[in-house]
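[Q] Does anyone have a clean structure-token version of this?
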Amino acid sequence: GNIMVELHKDGKQLGLELCGPQSLENRAPDFVPGVFVAAVHAGSSAARDGRIQRGHQVVEINGWQVVKATLREALTLLKVPRIEQIQLTVRANPRGFLQYADQTFAEYYAPLLPPTGSTQALGEQRMVLLERTRPDERLGLHLAGPTTTDDTLRARGIFVTGVDPSGLASRAGGLREGDQILEIDGKCLKQAAHEAAAATLQSAPLHVQLLVVHNPDGYAYYMAEAQRVEEQIASAMASMSLRTVVLPSRREAAAAEAVAAAQAELQ
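[A] Here you go.
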């Protein structure tokens, strides 16, 4: 059936990626019209609501029917200025989404690779299930990823940097340093900051599924880029401190003037 969801824009974004036809003319006989959800970004308004999933067809946007809309028409309705609350109606339509599944997966779930890297060192993508027995059980998983202010960071991704031997992740197996987490319970991590990934894990249900791939080249590239940005920030801060002029307070300035005047009188 249909699912009606009301979302608030976070910084003018809902956290959804859509896919659909650019035009409805000259379509193939097996073409299925419709605009579909290609990805739900972790940490977004849509992800926090939790009901919209990759593959859902968008039926209505703020009361406007979009069952036979083009992608551009649907995006225009989502980006109407000064409207912060968006009401979406979605429904499952796996047959319709199938025509976009491979293309959108490659776009939003591609592992991070160095500019000159190849996919040869990549492991097979796999699902890892973590089953907690209570909500406060520690996963024992250490992650690296960009902060929300890492605008200069060219490499983005969420990586496993370590697994505690006594934690749930170690007992469950299947995770190790250098793994890139592409998705947490259907929430895409392509644009996620470290804070969003950690919050998604913490707020997940007792049984949480991770889509991961062992990616040593991407991991090394990310860590090198993060170190580069950190050094740039440290250098900029040091440069700023060297240029800082400490101005005396009014009282100190008056005292200095008095001393200078007294010294002049003594001379």
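[Q] Thanks! Anything notable?
[A] DSSP finds seven helices and twelve strands in the chain.
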